[in-house]
Amino acid sequence: MGKGNSLSNHDEILATSNRVTKMGVFQYDIQQNHIDWNETLKEIHEESYDYIPTTENFYGNIESANSKNQILQAHQEALRNGTPFEIDYKIVTAKGNTRHVRTSVQPIQKAIEITGIYGVTMDITESEAQQADTLQKLKQLNYAEKLAKSGSWEWDIATDTLTWSENFYVIFNHDRECPVSYNTYLSYVHPDDKEKIIAKFEQALKTNYFPESSYRIQLKDGTIKTLNSIGKVITDNIGEVIKMVGTCQDITEKTERERELLQKKRQLKLTENNNKSGSWQLDLIKDEFKWTDNLYRIFDFKVGDKINFKTLQDYIHPEDKELVQERFAEIINNRKSHTFKHRIVLKDNTVRTVKVISDAITDSNGTVVELIGTTQDITRKIDIEQKLIEKNQLLNFAEHLTQMGYWRYKPELNEVFWSDNLYKIFDHPKTNKLTFESYFNKIHPEDKDFVKEKIDQSISEQNFYDFTHRIIVSANEIKVIQIIGKVTRNLNDGQLELLGTCLDISRNETKELELSQKNQRLSIAEKMAMIGHWQWDTAKNTVYWSENLHAIYGHDKNKPLTFETYINYVHEEDRETVVTNLTNAMQNGDFPESTYRIQLDDGTVKIIKSSGKIILNKKGEVLEMSGICQDITIARNKELELLEINRQLNLAEQMAMLGMWVWKPSKNIFKWSESLYKIYGFESGSEVNIDIAIAMIYPPDKGRVQKVIDDLLKGIHQPRSIYRILLDNNEIKTLEVRREIYKDEHGNIELFGTTQDITHIVETEQLLKEKNHLLSFTEEMASMGSWQWNPYTGVSKWSDNLYKIYDLELGLPIDMDLFLSRIHPEDSKIVTDHIANVVTTKKNDSLLLYRIILNDGTIRSLELMAEVVKDNNGKIIELIGTAQDVTDRIKREQDLLEKNQLLNFAEQLSSIGYWKWDIVNDVMEKSENLLKILDFDQETKLNFNTYINRVHPVDRKKVIDVSRKIIETKKFDKFHHRIIKNDNSIRSIKLIGEVILDSEGNVIELIGSSQDITEQIEVQKKILDTNRNLEKSTITLTSKNKQLAEFNHITSHNLRSPVSNLNALLAIYKSANNETKKGEIFGKFEIVIGHLTETLNALIETIAIKHNAVETTQKLCFEQTLLKTKEILAAELIESNANIRCDFSKAKNVKYNPIYLESIFLNLVSNSLKYKSENRVPEILITSNIVNGKTTLEFKDNGLGIDMKSNGHKLFGLNKVFHKHPDAKGVGLFLTKAQIAAMGGSISAESKVDVGTSFFIILN
Fold this sequence. Notes:
CATH class of the largest domain: Alpha Beta
CATH superfamily of the largest domain: PAS domain
Low-confidence stretches: 1-20, 385-398, 508-525, 1042-1058, 1097-1110
Protein name: histidine kinase
EC number: 2.7.13.3
Number of strands: 47
Keywords: Kinase, Phosphoprotein, Transferase
Shape: elongated
Organism: Maribacter caenipelagi
Radius of gyration: 47 Å
InterPro entries: HATPase_C_sf (IPR036890), HATPase_dom (IPR003594), His_kinase_dom (IPR005467), PAC (IPR001610), PAS (IPR000014), PAS-assoc_C (IPR000700), PAS-like_dom_sf (IPR035965), PAS_fold_3 (IPR013655)
Mean pLDDT: 80
Structural class: alpha+beta
Strand order of the largest sheet: 2-1-5-4-3
Helix content: 25-40%
Number of helices: 38
């Protein structure tokens, strides 16, 4: 069937198009000056079917003069140059109705002459209304997103097309002109969170579920934001994912507030723990206390017990009860803070002294409703003989960063040590011996002179200068490394050495790649209607498609067309249905309207609406089919778009706990979104009006809200207000309302806005204020201040009390230069090294003691405690901590230290040492002189076994029997025994002691002193020999015995007399009135000190030992250790037929003490064999693993097992046995635990009787 230009031909082709869309066709013949509209076009213009259009109203009765001019110009251009055009405009129909139409015009050309035009006009009124509604919804969504700091997104999986809402661009600070895709989005995700986000999207594609999550983004300017994301996966009718939609909310501020609150809690906890203090609140109405955990511990209460004022009074010392009542009454009556001290009596009658700082909290009427404060246990502060806190200051350059290693270099010996990671950085084999040349040869030739200059300068000035340089490793790879170090002297050999860390900083920054869009769309004359027409000659199987149908199907016009071509474009899931419909149509002669999908060569899926007609011959055979196809993909998507926007709007409201509302007072319209019903606790859809909303307002706020409403009705804009509501369940919520005022065409007020539930935010802010208040009390009490420091920005925040400690003006900006300027010059390097170590290692294991100099020259000593705050990926966010003025405490410690030194000298003079034995844990504390008497190293960890091994073999049973008798009778009678020293010399030791009991009367400790009485015994023996042989010298011998007894008495019971003599001489010297007498006394003073000094120096030289010896460790293989154990226990293994299995695949080696590791294996394996079950063959499984960076071992057997309920608490005790085995000594597990603990590890066990036992070991 041929193609023609006549209007009747097109009417025939498009006769059924009205069922697809309301579209009219027109034609203008220039030569005949004839205009023709089809019936549909007349219906669009609401004209009668006999209406004849003219050139004046060719395009209908156009409403706007501007539109009329535009159409006239386009019409003339089409007639003159053959230029097609398309335009949207409004018409006024014959019946006076306004309609929105879209007209597309195509010139008709023969040769080079324009003979006419034809076109299509489509009624798009309903589409425009839908679009306006969509725009309104989008406007509301944008408004809600701005308020909630949220944005919505949609991702088309097939096309990788990502659509962002307006506010999403704002959150990401992304240029709206730049296209976005999935990779664009990923480029913003923080590097540390990117892997997690990619995994989340991959899981969503697999499971059709999009989980809620929080993550960070990093903007192009470096700004980091925290987002909370929720979403939904959309699938097609066969369950395939076609798109994802969702909402992201910027929760950076919320996260920061929560972090700040957590930080304050940490600071308060740090302060309380460091200060032995606790915070409290007393509700006077309910008579109910809230205590922090530390306060429960101070009062020796169970954490969580209910406490009221009467409970507190029961524990106040009887003499202080009246004082406490008076002070609390003063606080309530005067409504101001008070500080006072009182004593408390614990359940075990222990008396403690506490310091209380309290303040009153009033309501809006000025009535005191609550007391808050802090209570500090100051017992230890007033106890002069308190034990001093041991301080450890560690300088450790560890490999906690991925590309870091540590090194040590002794220039004089040309000795170099590298950590394992440094070998990897320098790509150097570990087998080769290291020298300075090993390092220097790797340096880039251009950097060698610079490096040598820096190292020589560091050695000559004995002050390390940090530097950065390049190295060349294998395959000519160039790395950039940073060297940080220090110069010191080795404690062992006194050699000068350089030590420090080396950091590989070669990492290249990742480059972001953006995909460019390569698709160009074809624009044709029928673009407006997205329609194409077709004809099919069934006999010849020839097919004709209009130009636009080629574009819709994406088919090349130069390629042949057949029915099979068309069918191949139909989506495979719809193909059978389409073929069936065509077959039925050819049989029935009726072509039904149908909708189906097509799939283009590039994979694009479109939705097609088709209608047509069939031409039959006289025999009823099909000659030809013709019809139209419309691409309704966009129209169908627009129908879903409005629903999707509503879903996104609901998601945004739920995330922000926010609801939307509209109030038009003149029209009595009051509408709420579904989320607002939930906020008010109403059933969704129930009737609401302004009176109901006002009735819900909390009574104290009602008057203020009513005034705002009155102002709004007068046209006075009140954009924001906050008030409370009272729900039916008596729950009080705090709401924030934001609103906009508009006026309708009659000038009536109309309002719409949002209401957000901010109850949690208000409560968090209030709690933060209370915590700050309590923290201030605690800091003032303890002469302490808290601080925060961001090592990346250098910004510091100090509490008010810290400003007072440093004698600085409140609010003065604090930076590192100001902080360091106050530090005593002698302590500056200690402080800077400590800070560098904390930042480098990302941890702080010790307190820092340093001095500061105030404005008036006063020197104060401070003790700094710090905690490193890290994110989920281990990166430092900031450092927080406390600084306490410990000047007075240091002075007391120094005085006590001096007195302790004098006491130690006295011990050495009289050969006496002091000890304390913890019976329960078998741990001994000892004085230095006791170790000297027993001939032990200072590092020796004393327990009963260690001590008994030093006792003379003949006396061992006596010592064991006496020890048992002391524990049984709870009475310590002095006794003596002999010991054998390392040089095989024998000494006699006298022990005097006392028994310490717990509250139940059980022996828990023995304390006492040991004196070397060897010389005394030898003298006594000589005296006895002399008495028998020289009876005539009785008088002389008696006299000497008396002198010896007096000397024994002095050395045994007057250990402090040398110190007392010195103090007495000093007191007499101070009280002397003339210089002559002072000179005489001073001469005696010098004589006493001279003799004492000579004696002490001699003793000091004999007892001097080497401290801090480092125990040798080696890299050990578990399999080799197990093999050696099997060889040792070969006989037992053969006899028992035991089966030992192992799995060391997860951790093959460990750096450990070889003797200890072999002992652990031997003890645990031999235990499994010793306590095997007689009913089964012994099975022993040994496995290794790495948990949290530490190597672990598990020994599992199927032996007799242990009743853990009865014996678990004493499993590792000395001489504890649990089976009637002839070889059971109760020593093996005791030694094993001691060895593991000595290396910084731990051991635990699980066991079941007649099933077996598992031992779990953490090797440090």
